[in-house]
Specification:
alpha+beta; GMP Synthetase, Chain A, domain 3; 3-stranded mixed sheet; 5 helices; 9 strands; rod-shaped; Stage III sporulation protein AG; Spore_III_AG
Amino acid sequence: MSLIQWIKDQLFKKQTDNSQKKHLNKQTLLLLGILGISFMLISHFFTSSSGTDSQDSLPTVTHPKSLSTNQLQSAKEKLGTSKFSSMSKYESYYNQRLARILEQVTGVSKVSVMVTFSSTEKNIYQDNVKTQTNQTEEQDRNGGTRTVNEKNEDSEVVVIDNNSQKTPVVVGKEQPEVRGVLVVAEGANNPTLKSWIMQAVSTVLDVPNYKVQVLPKR
């Protein structure tokens, strides 16, 4: 017989004797008290289980991660192999590329970058160097002789004839000197993230830390 059925039997069976009715009332109160305590225990059990589940479901905090050496080197190479027709386009490209690179750092977002250069990039041309060496002997007043070596170098830019138009041969690009870098980003108020941002900018642009300013975004 279940607990509920036994309670119903005790509550609803007919009693004719007054003393038995009084005894039944006492049993009823006792049973109701037992039921109340049981429900409280069950409710507490489920509440505790729910609290444990909610704690287990909390998202784990991802530890900040800086850029690897390979990522920084790859970014440096990509920045150095682009062509631009004006200084503004040159700076704009660096600003956008550097911002995308820095946003790969865990905990850093909404990055704005401003890079200023001293001048635009310069072409490095192929030179044709001609060297001429002259050696002469001179006689001094005392009858001695001495040998004088004279070396002359003459260089000119190598040009090619392209459809009756002479074009100099370009062998490389000389990147301009960086005057300064300003980075504004969310997460930069964290000292560790700020240090990583400065390290990344310094590595990619090959500039000292004192030329890099990192500020938190409001």
